[in-house]
Amino acid sequence: MIVDDKAAVEGGVLIVERQILARLRNRRFFSLYELNEAIADLLEELNTQGFQKREGTRRSVFEAVDKPAMHPLPVNAYEYGEWKRLKVQMNYHVRVLDAYYSVPYDLVGQILDVRFTRTTVEIFSEGVRIASHRRCERKGQYQTVFEHMPSSHQAQASWTPTRILAWAQTIGPSTQVVCETIMAQRHYPEQGFNQCRGIFNLASKVYNPERVEAACERAIAIRSPLYKSVVSILKNGLDAVALTPPAGPPPIEHQNIRGAEYYKELAGAKENVTC
Length: 275
Hints:
The chain is built from ten helices and seven strands. The protein is an alpha+beta fold. The strands form two sheets. It has a four-stranded antiparallel sheet, with no helix packed on it. A three-stranded mixed sheet has the order 2-3-7, with no helix packed on it.
């Protein structure tokens, strides 16, 4: 049997319009909180008002029929999500709304199901979730999981600016400053990793840490803390040359130039005249 509740629902709407909305139509409210408070008061009055043709109130019917059948709300609020089928690119990432999210590298070239919400991107293969990422905040951004990389990429990704500087510090403070400067001059620190690692190779395979530290100290002194400057200093043996402060310009002697003694004598002459 099909029960049509449409008429009952429309009747309930009509009662609310008459008992609540109509009674408030001439009142002026200055905030949404004030309006909701007035509606809540009239709603409570309506729910405790007795029925005309049967026993009880709307409140008593709710307590006896609806409330026992109610279930708790879900722990997580509903979040709208969209689905797409996307191909894994050669860099083992899928492109979602101009941002990139990694999957295990052996899935390159496959078509996967992607579900994305306002906060999360989930990637499925044959109904099994294989990756979950926080949604990127800007276009062109990457979200990459270390375990998704092939072993060769994992070795490269293990290098970080913190690790670079910690290793440079084992050679010496000047080496650390040079490496820090190299990374700071790039838009992304990773773009300076190869030059920093080149300095480490100089210290471990070509020369020794003491010479490399001395070369970095000289590179800083000449205001050229760059990899190529360190290489040039080592190649020419300038790291063994003692650092001396640059000599100042020689004093200029000319008959039209008056030194400090002239002004001292002039000041003494003025004092004698005053006395």
